[in-house]
């Protein structure tokens, strides 16, 4: 078990966003988080990341950071990049902040991470000049550099071109193959269903489906 | 935690020093203050050491507000704050990193303000300059500890620049008074009376706000929006 949510609820002021969510993430699985706009998917992901505290219930993380990587990687709507720094400087900063071993934050390792995202030739250009797709690929490079055992993705494909989407899908599959647990909010659920093992669907502030992706019928649960 | 704090500080210094973001405005504001006060003197009139020290500290205080607003604002542009919060280190590393960067930038600014105060306010460097320098360093520790705490508090608020000024300046009064009183030694020929008490006050201020920063920072810098 990488992550366990038990009867989680979240209020913003007096407004209830989600309630009674219980859910578990296992290693080597992709869970698609589905639901209409405003259903509380991003809030749920932030609760999983520890960026927000639940109003009720508990969020337990099963993995701790070790020499092989971080416990958690989070890819949100925002890219987390510093536009004034180059792509290389951005990666170097995150590697240093996360205390990666010297061989994992060497110049070669950072350039290899950029190469994997097809950004190596832009390594020493300011990230502020990048397109949305390039910025998101740099963000993905940042997350994957940390080799997280739990990967939380909040609509990572928004605004990406076909090539960037292909890279994103390749890296999600690679992360699953190395044993990472992935929770993924997708803006095109029908399309990404085939890439998922499980689905957690939220509607009307509560879980309306939790089970295998193969049995999930979006229309049947009004998502 | 120290290595993460140093990573944050060196990234901030790289951003602010190499690209001039934020620091130039802070320097210009401080220099403008010193220059405008210099115009208030009559021709041939020389300002007293305490008056000059007061203007120096006023410039430093305004500069500090701009520095910490900039230091925390750079984390908001693309949501980088969330990235900092997800790092596997105590959140106080952010406070410490911002404090180290703020301390360095404030010292850089003061290294410009001091000669400007000497030139524009007609001061001379006294043989007791080291007492003034020690006071500046000691007072700066408390000032940046408080600035890094309250700078985080004001982020995400409307009119954050004015909010930081409003909450920061009243709390800075004791350390500014001590800085003015003892810092005047840099421009005077004798050590002011009660210097030990004033330095004790600054040391207590430093200890109080270093402790407050460590304890309170996780409550003011989080992922909730």
UniProtKB/TrEMBL annotation, chain A:
Source organism, top-level taxon: Bacteria
Protein name, as recorded: ABC transporter ATP-binding protein
Pfam families: ABC_tran
Any coiled-coil regions, as ranges: none
Claim: Nucleotide-binding is one of the keywords in the record: yes
Domain ABC transporter per the UniProt entry, residue ranges: 3-221
GO molecular function, one term: ATP binding
Source organism per UniProt: Nitratidesulfovibrio oxamicus
SUPFAM superfamilies reported in the protein's UniProt record: P-loop containing nucleoside triphosphate hydrolases
SMART domains recorded: AAA (SM00382)
Keywords: ATP-binding, Nucleotide-binding, Transport
Automatic annotation (TrEMBL), chain B:
Primary location recorded for the protein, binned into one broad class: membrane
Transmembrane segments: 20-39, 51-74, 103-122, 128-151, 163-186, 198-221
Membrane topology: Multi-pass membrane protein
UniProt keyword annotation of Transmembrane present: yes
Keywords tagged on the record: Membrane, Transmembrane, Transmembrane helix
Record localization: Membrane
Keyword Nucleotide-binding: no
Domain of life of the native organism: Bacteria
UniProt xrefs under InterPro entries: Cyt_c_biogenesis_CcmB
Family per record: Belongs to the CcmB/CycW/HelB family.
Protein's UniProt name: Heme ABC transporter permease CcmB
